[in-house]
Each structure stands twice: as C-alpha cells, then as structure tokens.
Amino acid sequence: MIVWDDWLLTAARAAVHLPTGTAVVSDLHLGYADVRRRGGEAVPLRPVAASLHDLRVLLHEKAVEHLVLAGDVFEAAASPDLCGELLRWIEGIGVRSVRVLEGNHDRGLSKAPEPLRPVRPPVLLGEWQVVHGDGDLPPGRVVQGHIHPALRPRLDLPPVPCFLTRPGHLVLPAYCAEASGVDVSRQERWAGYDRHAVVGGSVLSVSG
Fold first, then answer.
1. Could you give the CA distance from residue 89 to residue 66 in angstroms, rounded to a whole number?
2. What's the rounded Cα separation, in Å, for the pair 36 and 145?
3. What is the enclosing helix (H) or strand (E) of 36?
4. 2-206 CATH pick, 1.10.10, 2.20.28, 3.60.21, 3.30.70
5. DSSP class of residue 110?
6. What are the pLDDT digits (tens) for 88-143?
7. Of 39, 74, 174, 201, which cross-links 27 as Cys (Cβ 3.0–4.6 Å)?
8. pLDDT-derived band of residue 21, with 50, 70 and 90 as boundaries?
9. What pLDDT does 180 receive?
10. How is the chain split into domains, by residue range?
11. How many Cβ atoms sit within 10 Å of the Cβ of residue 53?
C-alpha cells in the first residue's frame, strides 16, 4: 500500500480517503462474465461475493466506515439477481454508508433497489470530488474511474492495473480483473502522471 496525499492506494484496487475513512472503488463490472457468455464466449461465472472478496477483506482490515462505488458497478443491466447478490454482500460488510455513482455501463440503475440507486455526482470527500469520469471533469480535486489504467511492460505479458496520480487528480484502476486495462504508458495524455502498479498483494510506484 502507498499513502499519496489524503489517500491510501491499495492492492485491492480501491483507494481509501484517510480523513473520512471512505473507500472508493470503480469499474466493478459485475455480470461481466454473463454478458460474455451470452455472446458465445466460454467464460466461467463468478458469484458477486467471490468477485468482491478482496474488497471485503480491505474494508475489514482498514476498518472502513463508508464505501463509494464510483460507476460501472454493472457490466450491463442491473438484473434483479445481480442486485440481490450485491445487496446481500453490502449487508455483510458492516460499513455505515454506501453511495453509488452511475457509470456509462450501468443501465436501469435508477430503478434498482433503494440502496443501489445512484446519487447525484460528485460525491464530496473533504476537498475531493468523486465522479465516474466518462464526462467533463469538475474543476478542483477529482477522483475518477472509467479509464481502466494499466501498464504493460512487454507485449507478451498481460497488463497490470495501476493508479495514476498528479496533484489534485487521482485515477483509479478498474476493480474488475477481467476487464482489460488501457496501457497508459503509451498515451501522451498521461505523461505527467505518477504510476502506481498493483502487482500481486503490493502497490509499487513505477518510474519512467
């Protein structure tokens, strides 16, 4: 884990806002495998509880009090079965509050059960504004998802998810392990950012 500004960057691909005890995670893409299977791919299904195991461990170990799901909670429509699984998971994690932001993949979230209905962006954590990040960013300090930042040291290796940081801006990696990351080391727009790669159970700052 790495402390950056007000944030703890964790190997669970979530960032914890230390002053408020709030974990922020983005791009869970629950139901990803089901969507791929409907398209004919042989992808094994994973229960929501299994997909969110690492996040649950983090919330317990760091005594997190609040959770923000920063968009793309679901890969596609928020089906009753997936909503039910997620609600049961939320009931078991012991946090005081859960706030959900709507992402560009989320469909029908406004009709989901009350605890999963999206709040109006941004979510404010001190001076930080949490958004999904698929639209224009607000001025000031921003935390966002949507980008799926990753590093690919060699073309024959899979991408490694990473956090991107520069003063006033934090970009979260996708939580979903199956969603391919975007190799930010090859994109000029991220040239001024520090990179913090999630490798196994560690977060490592990467230069260059």
1. 14
2. 22
3. helix 32-38
4. 3.60.21
5. G
6. 999 999 999 999 999 887 887 888 888 899 999 999 999 999 999 999 999 999 99
7. 174
8. very high
9. 67
10. 2-206
11. 14
